[in-house]
Amino acid sequence: QVQLVESGGGLVQAGDSLRLSCAASGRTFTSYLMAWFRQAPGKEREFISCINWNSIITYYSDSVKGRFTISRDNAKNAVYLQMNSLKAEDTAVYYCAARNARGWERFRDPNEYDYWGQGTQVTVSS
């Protein structure tokens, strides 16, 4: 069992940067594949990025590749999303998610994740 709490969202202008944080409870943080998703009004929840337990493997959606960077600090039970060159279309609620390690099948599918945070709003004005 793990609980996730996101922070760091806010209102910024296009071109600005934000860093989202996700704090995880529990003693088995390294057991989880960690990911970020986002959901804009009227749209489905969208995969953004994920990172494996030792940070060697990361994946990004094409929409954020080159602008966003995912990282994790296992000593702090935390995962981060550095977002640069923000665009108006990045406006959404951003969610941290975790799933028990079971390979890489369907890692972009939100239904494959076991735990979710409450979300943090990111609004980018153009």
The portion of residues assigned to helices is: under 10%
Number of strands: 11
The Cα radius of gyration reads: 13 Å
Q: How would you characterize the largest beta sheet? A: 7 strands, mixed
Strand fraction: over 45%
Elements, N to C (H/E):
EEEEEEEEEEE
Give descriptors for this structure:
globular; 0% helix; 126 residues; single chain; four-stranded antiparallel β-sheet; mainly beta
Description of the structure:
The protein has 126 residues and is an all-beta fold. Helix content is 0%, strand content 48%. The protein contains no helices and eleven strands. It has strands spanning 4-7, 10-13, 18-24, 32-39, 46-51, 58-60, 68-73, 78-83, 92-100, 115-116, 120-125. Strands 2, 4, 5, 6, 9, 10 and 11 form a seven-stranded mixed β-sheet that branches. A hairpin with a 4-residue loop joins strand 7 (68-73) and strand 8. The model has no long low-confidence stretch (mean pLDDT 96).
Please describe the topology of this protein.
Blueprint: E1 4-7, E2 10-13, E3 18-24, E4 32-39, E5 46-51, E6 58-60, E7 68-73, E8 78-83, E9 92-100, E10 115-116, E11 120-125
Parallel strand pairs: 2-11
Antiparallel strand pairs: 1-3, 3-8, 4-5, 4-9, 5-6, 7-8, 9-10, 9-11
In short:
This protein is an all-beta fold and 126 residues long. It is built from no helices and eleven strands. The strands form two sheets. Strands 2, 4, 5, 6, 9, 10 and 11 form a seven-stranded mixed sheet that branches. The chain has a four-stranded antiparallel sheet with strand order 1-3-8-7, with no helix packed on it.
